[in-house]
Design brief:
This protein is of the alpha/beta class and 281 residues long. The chain is 31% helix and 21% strand.
């Protein structure tokens, strides 16, 4: 029998995907989804109360992970597209979205490799059934899609300029090598008057990789992130702090909590001459 060596980095990515399955597609993840997704969905409904089937508003979800938030947005009557860079996430989301035949069809043991902070053996080896809903029967619109690829490479394209009514970022901004570049692209792809809804912390993913080739990391505080957004034509409408978790084992002895920033910003329309006058008022 051949022996295959799996690098530890790939093992960690698989474990991450399994934790995200619980977050997005298990009943056990409902509390975390309510913390993170519900405020976003409420903001979308508030800003787009009229969603006609003939001309539904469009919403992009970068960093869509396993697709649950993008699906929930689609079910509200939006043309919703999730964008995800990780092929691990894309393969898993494709399986759940396209191959699932019934609720609770699959059983996983997501915490079996978590040897720390377990209350009991039973907690560590407990089973979790997925998915908690049948995706194909959830009420998604015809325009629902998932797009694989790097956000900067895919959406920093002339065809994407002014293409979206809304952009939703959830635990995504801090995945950037350069957060300023993310904000610039979000501004470009939104229509004039479009809204950007964000929720998440600033746990910059590349902050500890200094010196590694091609692993630059621009790390701004929240105040400076908002200042950059205002410079790129956004107007802050709503700002809150919401306590959330992320792929947390709800029965573990250790719980990591974030005080996540939630905001809604609107892209101010340019004046007809194309100058910055209206943005600087």
């Amino acid at each position: 029998m051949p022996h295959f060596h799996v690098p530890l980095v790939d093992v960690d990515k698989v474990r991450c995907v399994i934790r995200n399955i619980v977050r997005d597609w298990a009943t056990e993840g409902q509390k975390e989804r309510d913390q993170c997704y519900k405020p976003i969905l409420e903001e979308l409904v508030r800003h787009f109360p009229e969603r006609s089937k003939e001309s539904p508003p469009t919403c992009l979800v970068p960093g869509a992970g396993l697709g649950r938030l993008a699906l929930e947005i689609s079910c509200l009557g939006f043309i919703s597209q999730g964008n995800e860079f990780s092929y691990y996430m894309m393969i898993c989301s494709s399986f759940i979205l396209n191959q699932t035949q019934d609720v609770g069809e699959w059983t996983i043991h997501p915490w079996i490799h978590s040897n720390c902070n377990s209350l009991s053996d039973a907690d560590q080896v407990r089973a979790v059934s997925i998915p908690d809903i049948h995706p194909a029967s959830a009420g998604i619109t015809e325009g629902f899609s998932m797009c694989g690829g790097d956000f900067v490479e895919v959406y920093n394209d002339p065809s994407q300029v002014g293409a979206w009514d809304a952009v939703v970022t959830c635990f995504f901004l801090d995945t950037a090598h350069n957060i300023v570049e993310y904000i610039e692209i979000i501004s470009k792809i939104l229509k004039d008057g479009g809204v950007w809804i964000n929720l998440g912390p600033l746990l910059y993913h590349f902050a500890d990789m200094y010196g590694q080739e091609d692993e630059m990391s621009v790390e701004l505080c929240l105040e400076d992130v908002k200042r950059v957004a205002l410079h790129h034509g956004f107007q802050l409408e709503i700002e809150k702090t919401i306590e959330t978790t992320y792929t947390t084992n709800p029965r573990a002895m250790m719980q990591n909590h974030y005080f996540s920033a939630l905001w809604t910003m609107r892209k101010k329309p340019l004046v007809a001459t194309g100058t910055q006058e209206s943005m600087d008022e």
